[in-house]
Amino acid sequence: MTPTKTGVNQLFIILTLFFLIPLGLATKFYHGPAKNWVTLYAGDIFYPMFWFFLGMLLFPAAHPLKMSLIVWLFSTAIEFTQLYDAPLLTALRRSFVGRTLVGTSFVPLDILYYFIGCLLALLLYYALHFFRLPVTSTKPESQNKAF
Q: Where do the domains of the chain lie?
Protein backbone atom coordinates (compact mmCIF):
# COMPACT_ATOMS: atom_id res chain seq x y z
CA MET A 1 0.00 0.00 0.00
CA THR A 2 1.47 3.35 -1.03
CA PRO A 3 0.98 6.46 1.08
CA THR A 4 -1.63 8.95 -0.02
CA LYS A 5 -0.60 12.45 -1.01
CA THR A 6 -1.87 13.73 2.31
CA GLY A 7 0.04 10.98 4.13
CA VAL A 8 3.33 11.83 2.45
CA ASN A 9 2.86 15.50 3.17
CA GLN A 10 1.90 14.87 6.79
CA LEU A 11 4.90 12.60 7.26
CA PHE A 12 7.20 15.31 5.86
CA ILE A 13 5.64 17.91 8.16
CA ILE A 14 5.90 15.66 11.24
CA LEU A 15 9.57 14.92 10.47
CA THR A 16 10.21 18.64 9.98
CA LEU A 17 8.57 19.42 13.33
CA PHE A 18 10.67 16.75 15.07
CA PHE A 19 13.76 18.34 13.51
CA LEU A 20 12.80 21.94 14.38
CA ILE A 21 11.98 21.33 18.06
CA PRO A 22 15.46 20.24 19.20
CA LEU A 23 17.10 22.65 16.76
CA GLY A 24 15.17 25.59 18.21
CA LEU A 25 15.85 24.53 21.79
CA ALA A 26 19.53 24.01 21.02
CA THR A 27 19.85 27.68 20.07
CA LYS A 28 19.22 28.58 23.71
CA PHE A 29 22.20 26.49 24.88
CA TYR A 30 24.64 27.07 22.00
CA HIS A 31 28.26 27.95 22.89
CA GLY A 32 30.11 27.84 19.54
CA PRO A 33 31.01 30.44 16.90
CA ALA A 34 28.59 33.37 16.60
CA LYS A 35 27.16 32.43 20.01
CA ASN A 36 25.50 35.81 20.56
CA TRP A 37 23.68 35.77 17.22
CA VAL A 38 22.63 32.13 17.56
CA THR A 39 21.30 32.49 21.11
CA LEU A 40 19.57 35.82 20.40
CA TYR A 41 18.21 35.40 16.86
CA ALA A 42 18.44 31.89 15.39
CA GLY A 43 15.50 30.77 17.51
CA ASP A 44 13.51 33.66 16.04
CA ILE A 45 13.88 31.96 12.67
CA PHE A 46 13.04 28.43 13.87
CA TYR A 47 10.09 29.56 16.04
CA PRO A 48 7.83 30.69 13.16
CA MET A 49 8.99 27.76 11.03
CA PHE A 50 7.70 25.42 13.74
CA TRP A 51 4.34 27.22 13.96
CA PHE A 52 3.99 27.28 10.16
CA PHE A 53 4.49 23.52 9.84
CA LEU A 54 2.29 22.81 12.85
CA GLY A 55 -0.41 24.99 11.27
CA MET A 56 -0.10 23.16 7.95
CA LEU A 57 -0.32 19.83 9.77
CA LEU A 58 -3.46 20.85 11.67
CA PHE A 59 -5.05 22.66 8.71
CA PRO A 60 -3.85 20.79 5.60
CA ALA A 61 -6.27 22.63 3.30
CA ALA A 62 -4.86 26.03 4.33
CA HIS A 63 -3.04 28.02 1.68
CA PRO A 64 0.67 28.03 2.60
CA LEU A 65 1.10 31.73 1.86
CA LYS A 66 -1.84 32.61 4.12
CA MET A 67 -0.49 30.33 6.84
CA SER A 68 2.89 32.02 6.59
CA LEU A 69 1.31 35.45 6.90
CA ILE A 70 -0.82 34.37 9.88
CA VAL A 71 2.22 32.94 11.66
CA TRP A 72 4.24 36.11 11.01
CA LEU A 73 1.43 38.34 12.28
CA PHE A 74 0.94 36.13 15.35
CA SER A 75 4.68 36.08 16.11
CA THR A 76 4.84 39.85 15.69
CA ALA A 77 1.86 40.29 18.01
CA ILE A 78 3.57 38.16 20.65
CA GLU A 79 6.70 40.30 20.27
CA PHE A 80 4.64 43.41 21.02
CA THR A 81 3.19 41.78 24.16
CA GLN A 82 6.70 42.04 25.56
CA LEU A 83 6.09 45.77 25.93
CA TYR A 84 3.30 45.00 28.39
CA ASP A 85 3.79 43.68 31.93
CA ALA A 86 0.56 41.84 32.57
CA PRO A 87 0.65 39.62 35.68
CA LEU A 88 -0.11 36.51 33.60
CA LEU A 89 2.71 37.25 31.14
CA THR A 90 5.11 38.03 33.98
CA ALA A 91 4.26 34.70 35.60
CA LEU A 92 4.74 32.87 32.28
CA ARG A 93 8.15 34.48 31.76
CA ARG A 94 9.43 33.01 35.03
CA SER A 95 9.67 29.56 33.43
CA PHE A 96 11.96 28.43 30.61
CA VAL A 97 8.97 27.38 28.48
CA GLY A 98 7.24 30.71 29.09
CA ARG A 99 10.35 32.71 28.22
CA THR A 100 10.79 30.60 25.10
CA LEU A 101 7.18 31.04 23.97
CA VAL A 102 6.45 34.68 24.84
CA GLY A 103 9.93 36.15 25.26
CA THR A 104 11.15 38.61 27.85
CA SER A 105 11.96 41.88 26.09
CA PHE A 106 10.85 43.69 22.97
CA VAL A 107 13.47 43.61 20.21
CA PRO A 108 12.28 45.12 16.90
CA LEU A 109 14.89 43.11 14.96
CA ASP A 110 13.09 39.91 16.05
CA ILE A 111 10.23 40.84 13.71
CA LEU A 112 12.61 40.66 10.74
CA TYR A 113 13.84 37.23 11.85
CA TYR A 114 10.23 36.04 12.23
CA PHE A 115 9.67 37.12 8.63
CA ILE A 116 12.79 35.24 7.51
CA GLY A 117 11.59 32.13 9.37
CA CYS A 118 8.17 32.33 7.73
CA LEU A 119 9.77 32.80 4.32
CA LEU A 120 12.12 29.84 4.84
CA ALA A 121 9.22 27.66 5.98
CA LEU A 122 7.21 28.66 2.93
CA LEU A 123 10.16 27.97 0.61
CA LEU A 124 10.77 24.59 2.24
CA TYR A 125 7.10 23.72 1.90
CA TYR A 126 7.09 24.71 -1.78
CA ALA A 127 10.30 22.75 -2.34
CA LEU A 128 8.04 19.70 -2.18
CA HIS A 129 6.60 20.84 -5.51
CA PHE A 130 10.03 21.40 -7.01
CA PHE A 131 11.13 17.88 -6.14
CA ARG A 132 7.74 16.59 -7.25
CA LEU A 133 6.85 15.23 -3.84
CA PRO A 134 3.10 15.28 -3.33
CA VAL A 135 1.62 17.96 -1.13
CA THR A 136 -1.80 18.30 0.42
CA SER A 137 -4.29 20.02 -1.80
CA THR A 138 -8.03 20.44 -1.85
CA LYS A 139 -7.95 20.87 -5.64
CA PRO A 140 -8.61 17.97 -8.01
CA GLU A 141 -5.47 16.45 -9.53
CA SER A 142 -6.06 18.12 -12.92
CA GLN A 143 -6.00 21.59 -11.32
CA ASN A 144 -2.98 20.95 -9.12
CA LYS A 145 -0.32 21.90 -11.69
CA ALA A 146 0.58 25.39 -10.42
CA PHE A 147 1.35 26.65 -6.97
A: 5-131
